[in-house]
Amino acid sequence: MKYDLCCLGSALVDITFQIDDDFVEANEERGIAKGGMTLIEKDDQINLIQELMDLGKSPDRACGGSATNSVVAASLFGSSCHMSCIVSDDDNGRFYLEDLSSNGIGHTTELIDSEIPSGQCLVMISDDAERTMCTNLGINSNISTSNVDQEVIKNSDYIFLEGYLVASPEGYDTFKEAITQAKKHNTKVALSLSDAFIVKSFKKELEELIEINCDLIFCNESEAQEFAGSVIEKEIFSYFKNYTRNLIITKGSDGCIGYDENYEFSVSGQEVKAIDTNGAGDMFAGAVLNGLNNQKNLEESSKFGCYAASKIVQKNGPRLSKKEYEEIKRTFTSN
Questions:
Q1: pLDDT digits (tens, 9 = 90+) for 105-163
Q2: E strands within 101-187?
Q3: Measured over all CA atoms, what is the biggest interatomic distance in the chain, rounded to whole angstroms?
């Protein structure tokens, strides 16, 4: 089968809570940075969830993982998609695979009989709509080169990779194999830097992967600044041009900036009241990749990305209903 987009990333189930400022401060004392992603042991994650439950907080459960959210968005916007990942034969693993299928995403993933649980992410949304994530990768840490499907990559226009998986040696080797296969078969490579913590801790690994082959990098301002070692836009662009022909830097409500092989551009953000930024960057990437699948240039695809991201921040959670994705695409296309 031919795919517009294939994806290799973490399979996670999000457990989302609304939190207040006191809990934000308590987290910071524990070393959990507000607005960032912290890798956490399973027992510590369970204890945090129980603490929130004891405070009378009620969680929402949804399938997630940054790359998963992006590929779901691309699929519901009309792209043909495939996801490669690993899950355990547990409640979260079954829930995740059912979610992929219900959103029209192909996969060859099997449920693994393991004592290691499927990955889970605790998402905490503060009063200012910022999301703080505590992730236990679970069995995602066991991803390996055997999870790289050469035939799927060969038959895809793009492969999308999330930087989070570089946090493990196996993840690095898996990405290296996937990018090598993509280069061999002329499949374009899009990479998300994922988090400033990932860039700071694994910059060398990211550079090595990007140097093999990378057609497009997604990042936000803090990730771009960490990678380039500068806060000056001109210097950041100049640095990234050593690594990729196409770049998009998201700037929250201010939209995004970027460049392609022809010129640099800036796209204004949409003025909306945000109540939850969880999933905004993922929605942006999925919309951009869908635009590129439809032969739009990077600037036009970025306009669609900003428009789509402005819709999800007005709702709780990293996903919308299928009808809402259809309405976003229809409304943007008609304007």
A1: 999 888 999 999 999 999 998 888 888 889 998 999 899 999 999 999 999 999 999 99
A2: 105-107, 111-112, 119-125, 131-136, 156-162
A3: 55
Q: Which residues of the chain have pLDDT under 50?
A: none
> In sequence order, what DSSP letters do the residues of 13-64 get, joined into one string?
EEEEEE--HHHHHHHHHTT--TTSEEE--HHHHHHHHHHHHHTT---EEEEE
d(CA 100, CA 291): 21
Query: Please, what sign has the CA dihedral across residues 82, 85, 91, 92?
Result: negative
Give strand pairing partners of 256: 250, 267
Q: Assign 175 to helix, strand or coil.
A: helix
CATH number at residue 296: 3.40.1190.20
Strands 81-84 and 264-267: unpaired
**Which range marks the domain in which residue 247 is found?**
3-11+64-116+139-334
Q: CB burial class (10 A; 0-12, 13-18, 19+) of residue 84?
A: buried
CA distance 316 to 330: 22
**Domain count across the chain:** 1
234 within domain boundaries: yes
Q: Which two tokens stand for residue 324?
A: 């809402």
- 169-184 helix and 196-212 helix, angle to the nearest 10 degrees: 40
Bridge partners (DSSP) listed for residue 55: none
- Sign for the CA dihedral angle at 316, 318, 323, 329 comes to positive
Question: Is 27 part of a structural domain of the chain?
Answer: no
Amino acid at 18: Q
| Whole-structure pTM value | 0.90
DSSP secondary structure letter of residue 118? P
The single-letter code of the amino acid at 291 is G
For residues 313, 160, 245 and 234, what is the CA-based torsion angle, rounded to 10 degrees?
30
Q: Which of 285, 298, 294 is nearest to 333 (CA)?
A: 294
Q: How far apart are CA 144 and CA 20, in angstroms?
A: 39
**DSSP letter string over 248-283?**
EEE-GGG-EEEE-SS-EEEEPPP----S--TTHHHH
Contact 195, 223 (CB under 8 A): yes
Q: Please list the residues that pair with 138 across neighbouring strands.
A: none
